[in-house]
């Protein structure tokens, strides 16, 4: 990030206590520059994976925009795309409106994203946010799980977190690194071409499943986003309990890419003390 090299140069000629102070100041600058993970309120998850850098964000977002548009078109053809005045669309967009401005701190690109929120008529218990802020909920998740606003915010926060933390981009970067060797590819094609090749090869962003680490990451970042937006982060736990209960009937689609488990709930419970103060403050502020 811009601004970090300057203090390093100033540091050179200094000695003793002043040097130590300057080093402290540099550490502060570095802490700010590495992103939201250090010395901040909320969950502690570190920066985005360096693997994501192997694929240009713009390429991933472009592919995502295309796939989202295709999905909406198909839904509209089947008369399954809810209109803007549908009460549940109004509700989803109101919740998104409170969460989205909080995303910019996590990923500066999010400010430029053309955020979209849509509702698709389907019994599937499913929801997603594709790279670039393309959100969709299926009526099944709202109706069958009877989600409260707090629980909707936790689902939305979780899905938005995947996009902000660039888990799809990371996954593609890892694929590039393991399948061919990033150095070789980088030399031969340049980073932009890697993205083109992966996306041209049909990376299906919709059915992508993430690692356990990515899931934990999305749970925690999602809880924090929701809490800051004034939604009760404890709803993350009731949500997963509802999801697990639904799993005893027809397994929710969502669970195929988001494996449930008691460890997941335990992890969220452990992190509640980090996000509850943010929720209380947001609620007080109205
Ligand atoms: Zn997830």
Keywords:
286 residues; binds zinc ion; disordered N terminus; 3-stranded mixed β-sheet; mainly alpha
Uncertain residue ranges: 1-35
Q: Helices and strands, in N-to-C order?
A: HHHHEEEHHHHHHHHH
Number of domains: 1
Span between termini: 34 Å
Gist?
The chain is mainly α and 286 residues long.
Describe the overall structure.
The protein has a 3-stranded mixed sheet, sandwiched between helices. Residues 1-35 have low confidence and may be disordered. It contains 13 helices and 3 strands. It is globular and about 45 Å long. Helix content is 59%, strand content 5%. It has helices at 5-11, 16-33, 57-77, 87-99, 139-144, 149-164, 167-179, 182-189, 191-200, 212-228, 235-246, 253-257, 262-285, and strands spanning 116-120, 127-130, 134-138. It has one domain (50-285). It is mostly helical and 286 residues long. The site of zinc ion has 6 residues, from helix 6 and helix 10.
Summarize the helices and strands and which ones pair or pack:
Blueprint: H1 5-11, H2 16-33, H3 57-77, H4 87-99, E1 116-120, E2 127-130, E3 134-138, H5 139-144, H6 149-164, H7 167-179, H8 182-189, H9 191-200, H10 212-228, H11 235-246, H12 253-257, H13 262-285
This protein binds zinc ion.
Residues 158, 162, 210, 215, 218, 258 line the site of zinc ion.
């Amino acid at each position: 990030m811009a601004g970090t090299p300057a203090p390093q140069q100033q540091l050179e000629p200094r000695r003793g206590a002043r040097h130590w102070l300057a080093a402290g100041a540099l550490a502060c600058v570095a802490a700010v520059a590495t992103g939201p993970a250090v010395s901040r309120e909320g969950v502690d998850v570190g920066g985005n994976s360096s693997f994501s850098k192997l694929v240009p964000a713009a390429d991933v977002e472009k592919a995502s925009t295309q796939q989202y548009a295709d999905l909406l078109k198909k839904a509209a053809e089947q008369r399954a795309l809810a209109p803007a005045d549908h009460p549940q669309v109004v509700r989803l967009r109101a919740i998104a409106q409170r969460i989205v401005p909080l995303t910019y701190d996590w990923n500066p690109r999010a400010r430029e994203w053309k955020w979209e929120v849509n509702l698709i008529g389907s019994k599937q218990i499913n929801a997603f946010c594709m790279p670039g802020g393309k959100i969709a909920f299926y009526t099944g998740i709202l109706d069958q799980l009877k989600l409260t606003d707090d629980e909707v915010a936790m689902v939305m926060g979780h899905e938005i977190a995947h996009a902000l933390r660039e888990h799809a981009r990371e996954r593609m970067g890892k694929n590039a690194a393991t399948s061919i060797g990033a150095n070789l590819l980088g030399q031969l094609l340049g980073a932009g071409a890697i993205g083109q090749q992966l996306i041209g090869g049909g990376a299906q962003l919709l059915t992508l499943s993430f690692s356990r680490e990515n899931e934990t990451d999305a749970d925690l970042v999602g809880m924090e986003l929701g809490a800051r937006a004034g939604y009760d982060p404890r709803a993350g736990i009731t949500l997963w309990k509802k999801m697990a209960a639904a799993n005893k009937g027809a397994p929710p689609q969502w669970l195929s890419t988001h494996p449930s488990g008691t460890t997941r709930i335990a992890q969220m419970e452990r992190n509640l003390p980090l996000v509850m103060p943010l929720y209380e403050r947001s609620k007080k502020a109205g």
